[in-house]
Design a protein that fits this description.
35% of the residues lie in helices and 22% in strands. By secondary structure, the chain is of the alpha/beta class. Among the domains are: 9-85, Nucleic acid-binding proteins (OB fold (Dihydrolipoamide Acetyltransferase, E2P), Beta Barrel); 91-250, P-loop containing nucleotide triphosphate hydrolases (Rossmann fold), CATH 3.40.50. The chain has a five-stranded mixed β-barrel. A two-stranded antiparallel ribbon has the order 6-7. Strand 1 and strand 2 (35-40) form a beta hairpin. Helix 3 crosses helix 7.
Length: 357
């Protein structure tokens, strides 16, 4: 079964030390609050992370859908324990919304990231750029998917608008209801590859999965006419085999994408803007009023969209703020660690004096 889920000789080589420890390989195909479903050579098994793995892992070190893991089987029941996670090729990480936990991994070992949005009043090019930045940073190759084209009066105009800000990524228009554009979408995922659907709630991700499988695998909910918004219809993350040999991961809608060390992602989306300062007269140009500023020249000539420039600046500021916060958290953690060491040292000294007395 694991060959169906993308097992390769490279993975087998990486797994060799775990095999010598008596563990078996598997891929996490379903994540729920109470554990995981893992595909193994003997079929699917329920599994939970070992206490040691939970204790030692940071938030992004916990198993996630798409992970290849080393596990041990219970001899008397179809249950297993996950002891280790194989190195990830790619990882989609976001800031956990409204949570003190910091980071959260959404999916691992993903080849294609479909950035999904619907062609209704909620279509937002700037939001798509944020998803693209996160997708590039994950290591996957992004593809923009515009769903519900049957709800749009002028779909070609919207496709052109999004293509202008999508940094040469493929932009595909689909309608799951009418069955339009699905073959072109599936062509983006080769046999053995894994794709993930990311986007806000209600944009049609579950409908796409149902259309791919030709069955009502995922619950769906229509967009509300009053505000063009949807609700979350997927309560878990699941890796599903596609008829063509690829895999698709359906995950709950992401309302907000936080940038996690996303310099590479932002640069990939705004590559044209990143190159402009190279032509500025001064190396320390602030792109305000300096003579010979290539950025100002591009803005004045119309070659650079002012809104696109403003959004780029906003993303860079957000990234800088995220890095500053991460450094502050790391310093606070180190300070607490040193304080705890000092406390233990003083306690040990007191105990030693007590024994001598």
């Amino acid at each position: 079964m694991i060959e169906q889920y993308g097992w390769t000789d490279l993975l087998a080589a990486a797994f060799a030390p775990h095999a010598r420890a008596g563990h078996i390989p598997g891929r996490v195909i379903l994540q729920q609050r109470d554990g995981y479903l893992v595909a193994t050579t003997d079929g699917e098994v329920r599994a939970k992370a070992s206490g040691r793995l939970v204790h030692e892992a940071q938030e992004i070190g916990h198993p996630a859908v798409g992970d290849w893991v080393a596990l041990s089987r219970s001899p008397h029941e179809r249950a297993a324990t996950i002891h280790a996670i194989l190195p990830r090729r790619t990882a989609f990480v976001r800031r956990a919304a409204h949570s003190s936990r910091g980071l959260q991994i959404i999916a691992a070992n993903i080849d294609v990231a479909f950035v999904v949005t619907s062609m209704n009043a909620d279509l937002n090019p700037r939001r798509i750029q944020r998803y693209l930045a996160a997708a590039w940073q994950s290591g996957a190759r992004p593809v923009v998917v515009l769903t519900k084209s049957d709800l749009c009066d002028d779909p070609q105009a919207q496709v052109a608008e999004i293509a202008a800000v999508a940094s040469d990524c493929p932009v595909l228009m689909v309608s799951a209801r009418q069955g339009l554009g699905l073959d072109a979408l599936l062509d983006q995922v080769q046999p053995g590859e894994t794709c993930v659907l990311i986007g806000s709630s209600g944009v049609g991700k579950s409908s796409l999965v149902n259309a791919f499988l030709n069955e009502d695998r995922m619950a769906t909910q229509a967009i509300r006419v009053t505000d063009d918004q949807g609700r979350h219809t997927t309560s878990h993350r699941e890796l599903i085999l596609l008829p063509g040999g690829g895999m698709i991961l359906d995950t709950p809608g992401i309302r907000e994408v936080g940038l996690i060390d996303a310099d590479e992602g932002v640069s990939a989306v705004f590559d044209d803007i990143e190159r402009l300062p190279q032509d500025c007269r001064f190396n320390d140009c602030s792109h305000a009023n300096e003579p010979g500023c290539a950025v100002r020249a591009a803005l004045e000539s119309g070659a650079l969209d002012p809104d696109r420039w403003a959004h780029f600046q906003k993303l860079k500021l957000e990234l800088a703020a995220a890095e500053e916060k991460a450094e502050r958290i790391a310093k606070d953690a180190e300070r607490r660690r040193l304080a705890a060491l000092q406390k233990r040292y003083r306690a040990t000294k007191r105990n030693d004096r007590g024994l001598r007395d």
